[in-house]
Amino acid sequence: MADKMAGMMDTIDKRLLAALRTDGRASVSKLSAMLKVSRGTIQNRIDRLTQDGVITGFTVRVAASDDPHAVRAITLIEITGQKTVSVIGNLRGVREIRALHTTNGSWDLVAEIEAENLVEFDRVLRHIRSMDGVSKSETSLLLTTL
Predict the structure, then answer these.
(1) What does the pLDDT look like over 123-145, one tens digit per residue?
(2) Residue 80: helix, strand or coil by DSSP?
(3) Which terminus of the chain is more exposed, N or C, with fewer CB under 10 A?
């Protein structure tokens, strides 16, 4: 439903989503003032976007510098045959994968990974590489966020 809804969003919906990406904890009052619409409008739109699956949750993002031991990486994944759906399902079950994207070119998927330390990162990477349907991967560690 989110794909259908994305085409039906107006300017207020898009501005609301942008504001929530910046501050997912912003109050309805703050969002109302920022977007210059009533609190009721903001609440109704949040409710509708959540019900329609456009907004799937609210979360806290911790700055990378707040955990100096965290290991962050981008992993490019190649899938064999018709295994895409099952590989995606398996990858969605890995809590260290922060985001998963389809892509074009020689790679099929891009996974954003964040692990507590190198030992956990190694475990996650080995798990991904051992999944049925994953034929190849390439990983780049993220060092400094600019």
Answers:
(1) 999 999 999 999 999 999 999 87
(2) coil
(3) C
